[in-house]
Amino acid sequence: MASTEDSVNAVNRAFSKQSLNYDSIDQENQVLQDMRQQVYHHVSDFLKVESRILELNAGTGIDALHYVTQGHNVFATDLSDGMISQIEKKIIKHHFQDRFICQQLSYDKLDQLKGQKFDYVFSNFGGLNCIDDLSKVTMNLPAILNTGAFITWVIMPPISLWELLWVFKGYGKKAFRRLYKNGVTAHLEGEYFKTYYHSLAQIKNAFGYKFKFIKSEGLCALSPPPANGDFPVRNPRVYQSLRILDSFVRSRFPFNRWADHIIVTFQLSHNH
Ligand SMILES: C[S@@+](CC[C@H](N)C(=O)[O-])C[C@H]1O[C@@H](n2cnc3c(N)ncnc32)[C@H](O)[C@@H]1O
C-alpha cells in the first residue's frame, strides 16, 4: 500500500507535469469556461470589495488572477512545484506583486498560516478531492479567518448523473466509481494517487458547528461535464438548452448535491 508521502509526491508530480499545458487545456474547453463563470457568479453574492482571499489548491492561478484583477488581495497556495511556478510567472507578468502572493502549501497544513487573517477561503475544481477527510482542512480555518468570513469550495460529490450514464455503455465500474468508500485511484500524467468524493452531508459535518451552511449548487447537474468538452461544439443547441435547465434546478434538491461538481458556501459564525 502506498504511504501518505508517496501519494503526496505522486500528486505533486502529476500536477507539475500538467501545469505546463493546464491553461491552454482550460481555455480550449467551453464546459470548463462556463463552469468557472458559474463559480464566479456564485462567489459574487458573498465577496466584499477589497477582500483578502486565501486560495487553496490554486493550480496555475487562473482564479487568483481573476480576483486580483477585480481589486482583491489574493494569497494563492498549492501543493505542486509546477503549479506554484506558473502562479509566480503570472504575478511577474501582470505586475501584481503588491496584491498577489503565493506559497507552496498543502491545505492540510494551514496551521502554518497562524497569525494571518483572511476574509474568504476559496477552492476550485476538485482540488479538495485529493484529501480523504475535509476536517483536516476545516480544523485550522477559525484561527486564520476574520469574523463573518465566507468559504466557497467546489468539490466533486459521489453522485453525478452524467457519470451514471456510463452504465448504459457497459462501463458499470466507471459509472459507480465515485461511490467507493475508500477512494478511487486516479491516473493523471502517468502518476497514480487516491481521490475521494465528498457528499454535501460529509462536507457539512467537516465544517461543524463553528460554521453556518449558506448555500450549495450543482455544476453540470444536467449539462455535460468537462470530460465532454467537445459537446458544446458538436451539439450547441442541446448544450444551451441543458445549461438553461441547469440554471433552474441547480439550487434545488437533489441537483444541489448530485452533479459533476458542487459549489458549497459556508460562513464562520459570529459567536464561534
Ligand atoms: C484540478 S486542479 C484545480 C486547480 C485550480 N483550482 C483550478 O481551478 O484550475 C487540482 C489542484 O489541486 C492541487 N492539490 C492537490 N492536493 C493538494 C493538497 N494536498 N494541497 C494543496 N493543493 C493540492 C493540485 O496540485 C492541483 O493544482
Comma- or semicolon-separated keywords:
two-stranded antiparallel sheet, 272 residues, single chain, binds S-adenosylmethionine, Rossmann fold
Any overview of this molecule?
The protein is of the alpha/beta class and 272 residues long. It has a single domain, classed as Rossmann fold (3-Layer(aba) Sandwich), CATH 3.40.50.150. It is 36% helix and 22% strand. The chain is built from eleven helices and nine strands. It has helices at 4-19, 22-28, 30-44, 62-69, 81-93, 135-138, 161-164, 172-175, 200-207, 231-234, 236-249, and strands at 52-56, 73-78, 100-104, 118-123, 145-155, 184-188, 191-195, 211-219, 261-268. A seven-stranded mixed beta sheet has the order 3-2-1-4-5-9-8, sandwiched between helices. Helix 1 (4-19) runs parallel beside helix 5. The protein is globular and about 55 Å long. It starts with a helix and ends with a strand. The mean pLDDT is 96. Residues 11, 15, 57-59, 62-63, 78-80, 83, 106-107, 124-127, 130-131 line the site of S-adenosylmethionine (SAM).
What's the number of domains? 1
End-to-end Cα distance: 39 Å
β-strand amount = 15-25%
- Rg (CA only): 18 Å
User: Tally of extended strands?
Assistant: 9
What is the strand and helix layout of this fold?
Blueprint: H1 4-19, H2 22-28, H3 30-44, E1 52-56, H4 62-69, E2 73-78, H5 81-93, E3 100-104, E4 118-123, H6 135-138, E5 145-155, H7 161-164, H8 172-175, E6 184-188, E7 191-195, H9 200-207, E8 211-219, H10 231-234, H11 236-249, E9 261-268
Parallel strand pairs: 1-2, 1-4, 2-3, 4-5
Antiparallel strand pairs: 5-9, 6-7, 8-9
Bound molecules: S-adenosylmethionine.
The site of S-adenosylmethionine has 19 residues, from helix 1 and helix 4.
